[in-house]
Amino acid sequence: MSAGDAATSATDPAMNATLPTIGYIGIGLMGLPMATHLVSSGFVVHGWDIADDRRVQAAAAGVDVAASAAEVAARGEIVLLNLPTTAAVAEAVFGPDGVVHGIRAPALVIDFSTIPVDDGRAYAARLNEATGCHWIDAPVSGGPPAAGAGTLTVMAGGADADIARITPLVTAIARRFTHMGPIGSGLAAKMLNQLIVGCTHAVLAEAVVMAEAAGIDAARLPQCLAGGHADGTLLQVLYPRMVARQFAPQGYARQLLKDLEMVGQFGAGLKAPTPMAAQALSLYRMLVHRGYAELDTASVVKLYDPP
Fold it and tell me: In this structure, what are the phi and psi dihedrals at residue 231, rounded to the nearest 5 degrees?
């Protein structure tokens, strides 16, 4: 099924009947636009979030809001997790009202969250032992705009048969989906994604400050460098927000800090040197320490602005 077919299926009852029922836990900055997109693509989506206002927003978008994660899991053929921390994933799945108390085989869990590789593997094994249900780790890249447009980049770890089951969902949410290997492989790929993203954030902040100090039009740099080796999505999308000092969150500074902490730990466990990531990590620690945790990741440029 093409992306166009998915977009028109909302008006085709026969096609709707072929789509799996979705349970969605974590309908926040990334989860709400994705859940809304799934509803508009013809999926029946049952959702839950710890925050009252997010449940209200999800209901307004057509999500059938449940009373708990367990209730969502009981309703969904595929249960999606999109949560900000490892602790939040553990609580949502294994807590008193968690997924484990409602899900039944052959339902499948897909975790879009960014959590440590070993924790992802452990949660998958624990869920399978308790319920017989399988788990796919599928962290994403692209931010809320891509989540809402169905154009995410998804890196996945899981069994071949489980990956095959989620084809209609993948078609709806992702421009690029790569099955990297067994459980944990998607999370390993996401660590590398965040290594590159975090270091690029730090370099772009320096480029903004240097361009401004040089007296050139800093805002024209993406146009100037387009098509060259320095070009890329972050130069074209993130850099202009730094220049304009626009920090409404499309991704929280605290989340990138959390991810860079994980990158450092992952690299240390592999005995792989990550000196550039360590520098980016230090910058984001300072940024959050100064009280900017809830701003966009682009706000790292504030570290260079005059007080």
Answer: -75, 160
